[in-house]
Design a protein that fits this description.
By secondary structure, this protein is an alpha/beta fold. The chain is built from 9 helices and 16 strands. The chain folds into 2 domains: 238 residues, Zn peptidases (Aminopeptidase, 3-Layer(aba) Sandwich); 100 residues, Alpha-Beta Plaits. The longest helix has 22 residues. The chain is elongated.
């Protein structure tokens, strides 16, 4: 049962302002230790700090996991409160959903075994999620805390491959050069690149290119990075083959590969979240997102998974992140009701 709404909103507001005031870009999540030590003591939830600087609270033997991430993108935007809204870096992605999950774990701890995870490095290479997968833990149900505009449930994310390409050339004086690596690479980029157009079509986007150090000498090497996104059931090997053929004289390295994820509308966690929103008079939508999240990785350690969270997803990574206290309350209520239903099926 939920505590009184005003009490819960005050607690959520104070926690979110405290956490948002701590700048935690990927790699600096350890700065949040004091916050989680305080929350652990106040909420009587056992705390474990992992090697990746993820923070686990609650029952370590739980079969239900609420997982969000503690890291944010750059730059820091100091938090502020205006009327019933909180502004600042990470309040939407994903410290708002994270606080809602933390409080839902606290609310349900007497009746249900739940683990809460504030994972590290989600905005980079998901070291926290990968560490959890490698820990050997398994769960019956996982809810990922990401902003889904408060009323949506994410059932599908695209996959991603990050490619590094390094090409070496014989440098020439620019006044007599017969070949130019920059022109050569540019032609290949134009040949291969596919900008995002629709969810079901893959995108191949060059994001970094580095070449040349001297103003009158052609480059001796060129570095290029491709960000490739692709939908569920797409044969990514055809794209990789085309890139390998175009850059057959260069070094190509896959620096990250995250497969897509898709769950059914009949997935038990999806249905529990759906009903939890209906109980509050909210008609949910099942959606798919073009990016990736820790759901892509944590799917391997559970029978059932979905993503849901308070906050307007259009504000992610912007300088104008804002979340209302009402959105956070809906998030807490949704997580709590979903946990109670999932827990009732376990016993």
């Amino acid at each position: 049962m939920l505590p009184e709404k005003e009490y819960l909103l005050q607690k959520a507001k104070n926690y979110l302002l405290d956490l948002a005031s701590i700048y935690t870009p990927s790699g600096e999540e350890g700065k949040a230790l004091s916050f989680f030590e305080k929350a652990s003591k106040e909420l009587n939830l056992e705390l474990e700090v992992t090697k990746s600087n993820s923070f686990l609270l609650g029952d370590k033997n739980a079969k239900i996991l609420l997982a969000s991430h503690i890291d944010t993108v750059q730059p820091f935007v100091p938090p502020k409160e205006e009327k019933d809204s909180i502004y600042g870096r990470g309040v939407v992605d994903a410290k708002g959903p994270l606080i809602a999950m933390l409080l839902a774990t606290w609310i349900t701890k007497e009746d249900c075994k739940v683990m809460f995870a504030a994972l590290s490095d989600e905005e980079n290479k998901s070291a926290g999620a990968r560490e959890l997968v490698n820990s050997g833990k398994k769960f019956d149900s996982i809810i990922i805390g990401e902003p889904t505009s408060t009323k949506n449930i994410v059932v599908e994310y695209r996959g991603v491959i990050h490619l590094d390409i390094e090409c070496e050339y014989q440098p020439q004086h620019s006044s007599s050069a017969q070949n130019n690596p920059i022109i050569d690479i540019s032609k290949k980029i134009l040949q291969l690149s596919v900008l995002p157009t629709s969810y079901d079509k893959p995108s191949i986007v060059p994001t970094i290119i580095k070449a040349g150090q001297v103003i009158n000498v052609t480059p001796s090497n060129v570095y290029l990075h491709f960000d490739i996104r692709y939908p569920y059931n797409y044969d990514i090997n055809s794209i990789l083959s085309n890139i390998n053929n175009e850059f057959n004289e260069c070094k190509i390295k896959v620096v990250e590969s995250v497969p897509p994820v898709k769950v059914s509308a009949n997935d038990p966690t999806v249905k529990s979240l759906y009903r939890a929103l209906l109980l509050q008079g909210i008609k949910p939508s099942l959606v798919r997102k073009a990016g990736t999240s820790d759901m892509n990785i944590l799917k391997d350690i559970t029978k059932s998974i979905a993503t849901y969270g308070p906050g307007d997803s259009r504000l992610e990574h912007t300088l104008n992140e804002k979340i209302t206290l009402e959105e956070i309350f809906i998030g807490i209520s949704t997580y709590t009701k979903a946990i109670e239903e999932i827990c009732s099926r376990q016993y």
